[in-house]
Amino acid sequence: MGARIGVFRCPLQKCHHALTKLEYDRATCPSDKPHARLADGLGMYLEVTAAGGKYWRMKYRHGGKEKRLALGMYPAVSLTDARKRRDKARDALAACEDPGQLKREAKLTRALLDATTFEKVVRQWWAHWKGLRSPRHADYVIRRLEADVFATNQKSPALPGFFIGASPMPQADRRSRPPR
Question: What per-residue confidence (pLDDT) applies to 101?
Answer without folding.
Answer: 96
